[in-house]
């Protein structure tokens, strides 16, 4: 049987996503192309690799064995590129990092700047995901490094402190709730919101609302926390953003800030890997760099 690296990467993406559609998107392939590759893999090996059901896909015993070897092969390829990158002129290496919304928008730009400047031949495959998905991806070997909140199940992973991230509500100074220094999320759900376009944080907020038996009344979705703060300050709706973003926006936008009292709104972010000794030299260097610069709690 002949499987190329694209086949192996696709197979791992499908298993991690639990869906051929989402796995194909993760691997950068169209659904027809991905489905054909998976069928060819099964035909070449004359073995069933995936159980396909209405709720998604599950690997067979043979599929689990293939996934184990695929992770090993892809890891060795990454390690080879990292090692040769030290010697080969122009050869580039890649490190895959999954992180939640707060980490990507508020912390990583500054944290990555010096390390990437020191490693000009390294590219980062940086993707935004929810913390639970990040934990699964790192555990499965699909991402080398993850940055996630303590809400995710992280058994078996190596974790180091990264940052304390607090979520706050931003409102117009004239809003009836603007004088309250702290609010509960449940008390806001009868209000209209300004939200984030897609992203892990917006999904997280929608999940918390669903747990309370409610839906977020979204007036408009924007691509940046600064935009959310600006519209919230004008009375368009309430925004939920990281405290660091709210404090920064307050310098230019007239907003009131109230901390959310819910336990889930104060998140300890960690940088995690499956096994530090298994990392490529470059991934290990980045992991140690991120772990060494953990920030103190915001005040």
TrEMBL record:
One GO CC term on file: cytosol
Keywords carried by this UniProt record: DNA-binding, Transcription, Transcription regulation
SUPFAM superfamilies: Periplasmic binding protein-like II, Winged helix' DNA-binding domain
Pfam families: HTH_1, LysR_substrate
Gene Ontology MF terms: DNA binding; DNA-binding transcription factor activity
Segments forming domain HTH lysR-type: 3-60
PANTHER family associated with the record: HTH-TYPE TRANSCRIPTIONAL REGULATOR YBHD, LYSR FAMILY TRANSCRIPTIONAL REGULATOR
Stated role: NodD regulates the expression of the nodABCFE genes which encode other nodulation proteins. NodD is also a negative regulator of its own expression. Binds flavonoids as inducers.
Family from the record: Belongs to the LysR transcriptional regulatory family.
Protein name: DNA-binding transcriptional LysR family regulator
Organism: Rhodopseudomonas pentothenatexigens
């Amino acid at each position: 049987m002949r499987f190329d690296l694209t086949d192996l990467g696709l197979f791992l993406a499908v298993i991690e996503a639990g869906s051929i559609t989402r796995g194909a998107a993760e691997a950068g392939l169209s659904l027809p192309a991905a489905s054909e590759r998976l069928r060819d893999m099964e035909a070449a090996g004359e073995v069933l690799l995936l159980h396909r059901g209405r709720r998604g896909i599950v690997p067979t015993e043979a599929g689990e064995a293939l996934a184990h070897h695929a992770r090993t092969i892809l890891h060795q390829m990454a390690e080879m590129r990292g090692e040769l990158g030290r010697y080969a002129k122009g050869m580039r290496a890649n490190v895959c990092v999954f992180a939640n919304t707060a980490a990507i928008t508020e912390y990583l730009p500054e944290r990555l700047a010096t390390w990437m400047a020191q490693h000009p031949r390294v590219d980062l495959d940086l993707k935004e995901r929810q913390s639970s998905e990040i934990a699964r991806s790192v555990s499965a070997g699909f991402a080398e490094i993850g940055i996630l909140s303590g809400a995710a199940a992280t058994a078996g992973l190596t974790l180091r402190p990264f940052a304390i991230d607090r979520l706050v509500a931003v409102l117009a100074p004239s809003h009836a709730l603007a004088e309250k220094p702290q609010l509960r999320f449940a008390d806001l759900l009868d209000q209209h919101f300004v939200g984030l376009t897609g992203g892990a944080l917006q999904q997280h907020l929608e999940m918390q609302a669903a747990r309370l038996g409610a839906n977020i009344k979204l007036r408009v979705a924007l691509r940046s926390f600064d935009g959310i703060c600006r519209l919230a300050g004008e009375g368009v709706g309430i925004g939920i953003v990281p405290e660091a973003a709210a404090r920064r926006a307050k310098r230019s936008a007239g907003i009131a800030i109230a901390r959310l009292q819910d336990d889930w709104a104060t998140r300890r972010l960690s940088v995690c890997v499956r096994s530090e000794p298994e990392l490529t030299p470059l991934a290990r260097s980045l992991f140690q760099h991120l772990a060494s610069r953990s920030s103190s709690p915001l005040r």
